[in-house]
Amino acid sequence: RDPDALVTSGLYRYLKHPNYTGESLLWAASAALGVASLTPLVAPAQTVGTLVAIAFGQLGIQFVLCQATTGLNKRQKEKYGGSASYDTWRAFKGFELPPKKTTTTTPAPSAPTA
Length: 114
Known about the structure:
Elements: H1 18-36, H2 44-80, H3 84-91
Helix pairs in contact: 1-2
């Protein structure tokens, strides 16, 4: 295999950045475990402080991951932009959350002619 070739198979067929997706899920699971570990025996002020810390930590890491994917997208476009495989791969939206609603329109009935 060409080490410089664009990989569009395997997980990359369904996710643009499976490595960043996995890391994002790992951090989200870590935050969920942090929240789940809070017990009613902890002082309310400490619980609020912990929740705020978890929220800021989660926002921070998600921001870093978004910046990383933006940079990677830019480098990929510079390197592979214009090739048919890249354009097809970038056009595929994959699994978007929340899924976009599709709307269908029906043409209005035409007025009867006399």
